[in-house]
Amino acid sequence: MRMRRLGVKDANIQFLPETRISPICGTIRSKNPGLVIVDSIQTISDEQIQSEAGNVSQIRSSTGQLLKLAKETNIPIIVIGHVTKEGVAAGPQALAHMVDVVLYLEGDKLHQYRLLRGVKNRFGPTNQVGVFSMSDSGLKEVKNPSELFLGEHREKVPGSVVSVIMEGTRPFLIEIQALTNKTSYGYPKRATSGFDLSRLELLIAVLGRRGGLKLDDQDVFLNIVGGLHTKDPALDLAACLAIASSLSNQSMPNKSIVLGEVGLGGEVRLVAHFDGRVKEAARLGFNVMYVPSELDNKSQNTRIMPVKDISNALFVLGINKLKK
After folding, report:
1. What does CATH list as the number for 148-316?
2. Is the Cβ–Cβ distance between 62 and 41 less than 8 Å?
3. How far apart are CA 32 and CA 186, in angstroms?
4. What secondary structure does DSSP assign to 293-318, as a single string?
5. Concatenated DSSP letters for 248-289?
6. Pairing of strands 268-269, 261-262
7. Quick one: pLDDT band at residue 86, thresholds 50, 70, 90?
8. Which of 28, 34, 208, 287 is the most exposed, fewest CB within 10 Å of its CB?
9. In the beta sheet, which residues pair with residue 50?
10. Amino acid 296: pLDDT
11. How far apart are the first and last CA of the chain?
12. 224 and 242 in contact (C-beta within 8 Å)?
């Protein structure tokens, strides 16, 4: 049914409804396929071991036999394992330690994108990320991830800021949105989607102490558009300016991006892979860049707005009427 839905025709695919490791290995040797996918290793068992499938000893034994078979026959074998609600490999890490490569397919079921991330690779780098879009006909490669995450971005909206994050070695342009609202209760609410909540609370404290913004009577909501989850420190300054933009009800300049890590002293610092982030933003037409003042950029196609600290960033944007 799934093959018909995906439009897969005349595919040379064979199925083996078996959960015992011995018949599985025997079939692989006799059929000599070009690729083997085992779904899932937690359901496979070795009859010589007296324990239930999914047990540590069962996983270790079954994976060991598949690993030995793959090296003897030179047949690539993909073993699918369960993950926890937090998105990490379930159970003991014996499976991850034994195999040559560990890949995570990440994504929110309520959003269309998926990230294929390598976290272990004995024969190559692990900082590579594949981006795919889930459609009715299956996963489709996204060749320009920035366009995916900025597909619905609108200019001149207060609280909306564009920044650049790194997923592996790939820079993505994303939109971060903030909304401030007068609190109806005694204690202001802080909520995030895709952004670390404790980091938001830290940035709010910096905005209040170092930037002079009055946020102790404001609910603050922060959202990364597209369902993306990240802890990239390059978003610090973008989050701060998004909050200030919403609080002042004034939007960021057109085609502008914001990059920089914010320290407890309010200083704005450079982040890793800065040149790659700037080049990706410039490639997509963003020509106004709020970046740390240490940056020495002579590009003629971009307008650099150096920012020394959070107070200076608010001054550059003209947000000075909200001081305490």
Report:
1. 3.30.230.10
2. yes
3. 69
4. TT-----SSSEEEEE-BHHHHHHHTT
5. HT-PPPTTEEE--EE-TTSBEE--TTHHHHHHHHHHTT--EE
6. antiparallel
7. low
8. 34
9. none
10. 55
11. 63
12. no
Tally the C-alpha atoms within 13 A of residue 72's C-alpha that lie toward its C-beta. 10
Which DSSP string do the residues of 210-246 spell out, in sequence order? TS-B--TTEEEEEEETTS-----GGGHHHHHHHHHHH
Distance between CA 177 and CA 48 in Å, rounded? 56
Structure-token pair, residue 15 = 């199925």
- How does 186-205 read in b/e, with b if 16+ C-beta sit within 10 Å? eebebebebbbeebbeebbe
Phi/psi at 253 (5° precision) = -60, 155
pLDDT above 80 for 310: yes
Q: Which residue in the block uniquely carries the two structure tokens 């202001």? A: 188
Q: Are 212 and 99 spatial neighbours (Cβ–Cβ below 8 Å)? A: no
- What is the amino acid identity at position 209? R
The identity of residue 6, as a single letter, is: L
Q: What percent of the chain has pLDDT over 70?
A: 91
Residues 6+ apart with CB under 8 A from 85: none
Query: What CA–CA distance (Å, rounded) separates 265 from 113?
Result: 37
Spans of all domains in the chain:
2-99, 106-143, 148-316
Q: Is there a contact between 118 and 126 (Cβ–Cβ < 8 Å)?
A: yes
Query: Order of strands, edge to edge, in the sheet holding 101-106?
Result: 101-106, 113-121, 129-135, 138-141
